[in-house]
Design a protein that fits this description.
Elements (H helix, E strand, L loop, with lengths): L19 E5 L3 E5 L4 E8 L3 E7 L4 E7 L8 H6 L5 H14 L8 E6 L12 H15 L4 E6 L5 E6 L5 E4 L6 E2 L1
Parallel strand pairs: 1-3, 6-7
Antiparallel strand pairs: 2-5, 3-8, 4-5, 4-6, 8-9, 9-10
């Protein structure tokens, strides 16, 4: 029944809306300007994850690159440019610039590059991936804000687009913020 003197409802707990999580697949890249979202990639082994974030406009990107150099397979590089550091990294930077990010404000983080399935260190894919990223950043005057590379463990990486916080999870280890 409707009355002229409504009863004040009892206070309720207010729960924030859940964040949207966008998954960055192996050999893929995503960028976003949605501050209610997070970017996540799983299974960074010898692959590298590069995370960039502009705090002024809350724009970020994440690349999960498998190999350092696209010249080993031009056809595959054309079809899947984010699979390679040398083609995926520039594409990600251009994508965040298109969303309003500015190079001088970007915080860049590098994760991954572990050594897997290469006990004799013949291929050194992880190390070569890390070196390819560092070389490209240096050549373009971009400084690295933080890194967590090498080792022998797989990593999951999360970028919170509200704060720019980057969290790394590995089996058997505590979460690491970089």
């Amino acid at each position: 029944m409707l009355t002229e003197n409504p009863v004040t409802p009892a206070p309720r707990w207010v729960v924030p809306a859940p964040k949207k999580s966008f998954i960055v697949g192996v050999g893929d890249m995503l960028t976003s300007n949605d501050p209610q979202a997070s970017l996540v990639t799983h299974s960074l082994g010898s692959c590298v994850g590069v995370v960039i974030y502009d705090p002024a406009v809350k724009v970020g990107g994440m690349l999960h690159a498998m190999l350092p150099d696209s010249t080993i397979n031009a056809e595959r590089a054309s079809a899947r440019p984010h699979m390679f550091v040398d083609t995926g990294l520039p594409a990600m930077f251009h994508a965040v610039y298109a969303l309003g990010a500015i190079k001088s404000r970007l915080a860049v983080r590098l994760i991954g590059g572990a050594e897997f399935l290469d006990d004799k260190k013949i291929f050194n894919i992880g190390k070569r991936n890390v070196e390819a990223v560092l070389t490209m950043l240096a050549r373009n005057g971009v400084k690295l804000a933080a890194s967590e590379t090498g080792g022998h463990e797989s990593r999951t990486v999360r970028l919170d687009l509200t704060t720019g916080a980057v969290r790394i999870d590995s089996p058997g280890r505590k979460s690491l913020a970089i």
